[in-house]
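Q: What structure does this chain adopt?
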Amino acid sequence: MGVDKVGGGGSSSGASSSRPSVSESKPASTATPPASSTPAPQPPDAVRTSTPVQGWSGQSGFDVAPANGVSPNVAAAGANLRAAAQSGSTATEPPIPSNTGTVEVRGNTMTDAEKAAAGALRIDSAAPASTYDGMYVGADGYAYPPEKFDVTQVPPFEPSNPVASPTPTTYFTNGINTPPAGAISAAQDLANHTGTNVVPIYNATEGQNNDVLQTGQDRINWGDNKAVNTLANAISADLEAGRKVNVVGYSQGGAIVSHALNRVDQRIIDSQGGWTSNLPVFGNGNREAREQILSNVNVVGIAGAGKNFPAGPQYNFYVNQQDPVPNWLGVHEPNGTPDNVINVITGTSPLAWVINGGGAGFNAPGAQIHTFNDPAQGWPSNHGLDTYFRHIQTQ
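A:
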């Protein structure tokens, strides 16, 4: 899959004790110093509360997004395009929908010594990237293990022009071959582009070959990716607390997002009594309730490698026709030769079918796909996050 030009976050551990119980618990990282006896600050109360739906706490009070609904940002694309033309901007794709999120982060006021005592790690470029795998990355230069810190305690990357007040939060997962410094740079760019506070979940690189293998596993919801664990736990906790969630995945990050969402979807199914409670006709009520819960997740894929997503969330995907990653691996418009080749390969072998998670088709119900054509300077420039941002309008 090649080298991602830039990237951002990834994660592994379970939520802290203040997290809702649906989140998986993971062992504390052995790389962190012991926590002090002084408890870390507790997260604020849920932004919203609501009455429960069957098998899940705190969801039926949400407004259900219309089927195949278009976000206000996308609906206003015509006006945005006119404004771009008048300003001479080359950005013609609608802005990243981001103003619906209700997750709020406040950072922390701890001293460096207090952060270290509580388990935060100052990011060191000389340390192995895996040291910070699955952790939240703060704008203060610290990595925060999710089993020791709630996301509300992580200092976010703040936008130059907030899209709303209070400023919504966006979770961000990066692609392959990305050191922590790359995740930090991408997070700040994303914050400025979306007008939201960005909290990266660091997806540590373990070398290109291992990263590519892990991407393949994420595409078929297999393996124990620490970034998947952290993102799934964060989304589950936010939904149970009645919050609306923004999440952006870049390159491998798109596969991480799909894996995490499918894990959240399965948790809801399990809470409703398992797959038998979601069968057609007999389980229609549970299925509708599950999709209602997930409709409060706003998902954006940029050059994403994920293709199998559960029904319910609001999906927007940005695809460069010259970028092989989304056109061969991810969500895209029908593209002729790549689709035909994938279908021939997967049709000749059950193993190839399983490895690819099916043929060239994809499952992202109701997705809005925004396509542009920019050869850039060839590979990997045509896959770079900066190339995409040149074509996506700023909030």
